[in-house]
Structure formats: structure tokens, C-alpha cells
Amino acid sequence: MNDQLLFETLKLQIRGKTISYTAWRKKEQNKTKNSLEKEIYFLQQSLNVSSCKETQRKFAQKQNELQELREHKMHGIAIRSKANWITRGEKSTKFFFESGEKTLYKQINS
Which residue in 6, 44, 50, 79 has its CB near the most CB atoms, within 10 A? Predict the structure, then answer.
């Protein structure tokens, strides 16, 4: 077995494991988010009936947990967006090419 074939096989196996892990992790995060949202809803309902200090504390705690989950997700979106921008970037237009050529021409002739 040559080295290139071994390398490609290894990459394929790593990719498969990575995809299955990320799918499992996303499902778990969605379960956690849905569970928190339900708990917050029921705590809100019980706060409407009676304003108990313990219920208020639990409500605030669950809201903070949900907010942390959302911030983590937004952080991931920002990272992917930045990576996408770096790889694809904004394509230069004719205007910028011409202005760059004019500046270069002026510098050479000065």
C-alpha cells in the first residue's frame, strides 16, 4: 500500500468520525435548548401564579443557561462567517483595478 493511498484512507475515516460526532453534538445541543425553553416556559407560568424567590432564582438561572447556549452558537456562526470571508472574500471590481492602475501610473511618472 503506497503512502498516498494510506493518507487518503485515513482522511476518509477521520472525516466520517468527525461528521457523525458533530451530528450527535448538534442533536444534543438542540435537546438541551428545547429542554431549557420548556423549563423557562413552565417557570414563567408558575411566576405568574406566585412570586416565590426560589422560582425566581431558577428562572434567572435557566435564562442565563439559554443565553450562554445562544452566545456559543452565535460565536460559532461568527467564526464560520469570518472563515468564509477569508476564503472567498470580496471580488475586486473594475473600478478598483482602474484606480490602482491610475495610482501606479502616477507614481511611475512622478
Answer: 44
Has residue 61 been placed in a domain? yes
Q: Is residue 92 part of a domain?
A: no
Task: State whether the Cα torsion 14-15-21-22 is positive or negative.
Answer: positive
How many helices (DSSP H) and strands (DSSP E) are in the chain?
3, 0
85: nearest Cα among 77, 75, 93? 77
C-alpha cell at 17: 468520525
Q: Domain of residue 40: give its range.
A: 3-85
Establish if 98 belongs to a structural domain.
no
pLDDT in tens, the chain (110 residues): 688 999 999 999 999 999 999 999 999 999 999 999 999 999 999 988 888 899 999 999 999 999 999 999 999 999 988 888 877 876 666 666 666 666 655 666 65
DSSP 36: H
Q: Are 69 and 46 contacting, i.e. CB atoms less than 8 angstroms apart? A: no
Count how many domains the chain has: 1
Grid coordinates belonging to 85: 470571508
